[in-house]
Amino acid sequence: MTNTSFDIEAHAQDFQDKGPADILRFAFDNFDNIAISFSGAEDVVLIDIARRINPEVKVFSLDTGRLHSETYRFLEQVREHYGVELDVLSPDAAQLEPFVREKGLYSFYKDGHKECCGIRKIAPLRRKLETLDAWVTGQRKDQSPTRANVSVMETDGAFSGPNHTLHKFNPLANWTSKQVWSYIRANDVPYNELHSRGYISIGCEPCTRQVLPNQHEREGRWWWEEETLKECGLHAGNLES
Ligand code: SF4
């Protein structure tokens, strides 16, 4: 089923107080062409819940080429644990190679992460999202100032086009980090071994570092940049709003 005339905002209010399983069930009832975006702990919670509702759930992940080796092992662990078909997306060599030749491997420390993320993350993501009607993300309101107003479901203004409306489900929008980790422990959900070494929000290796007790989790990402600009573009709509 491809639901092109679906008015997601009309349903959003009804689901603001619902749990992730209800939101995912609603998403799968209305969209066949839907996939979960997977990189972090929240996303595996979503996969765990989704597999109980829809064993055929589709999952994709972005391989920027700059991930920690622990993260690559984690991707494989999740693939095997759940038996999911994991679509791993790579950057376009025709874009990446001239960029690295011209600016080197660490240009983001000098002129910001936007260009590198644009090539390594956003372009492959856009290519994937053009093939979908809806996607599911692990965004939570308490992750950062840019995510404070995230809805449990919305039209994705950043990746919709004139002839393609993309819908976005954020079933964990109202969950706290504590709820996510309670679920992980209670259900033996696999997690990235870097979490045991002080990493909370994990992205690419050169752009992620451990945080100290009581530091906000997103302080470990792009720490050299201003707080309100810390979106990699996957959720660029958050900055617009
Ligand atoms: S997080 Fe860092 S290394 Fe990864 S794509 Fe963005 S700027 Fe590049």
Overview in brief:
It contains nine helices and six strands; from the N terminus they run H-H-E-H-E-H-E-H-H-H-E-E-E-H-H. With 241 residues, the protein is of the alpha/beta class.
Q: How do the strands and helices of this protein lay out in sequence?
A:
Layout: H1 8-15, H2 20-30, E1 34-37, H3 41-53, E2 58-62, H4 69-82, E3 86-89, H5 93-103, H6 108-111, H7 114-129, E4 134-136, E5 153-155, E6 167-169, H8 177-186, H9 237-240
Parallel strand pairs: 1-2, 1-4, 2-3, 4-6
Antiparallel strand pairs: 5-6
Helix pairs in contact: 2-3
The structure holds iron/sulfur cluster.
According to DSSP, the number of beta strands is: 6
Class inferred from helices and paired strands: alpha/beta
| The CATH homologous superfamily | HUPs
Instruction: Count up the helices.
Output: 9
Per the principal axes of the C-alpha atoms, what is the gross shape? globular
Tell me the CATH architecture: 3-Layer(aba) Sandwich
β-strand percent reads 5-15%
The H/E string reads: HHEHEHEHHHEEEHH
The rounded Rg comes to: 17 Å
First and last CA, distance: 30 Å
User: Within the CATH hierarchy, at the fold level, what is the topology?
Assistant: Rossmann fold
Q: Are any ligands bound, and if so which?
A: iron/sulfur cluster
Count of all domains:
1
Largest sheet geometry: 6 strands, mixed
Helix % is: 25-40%
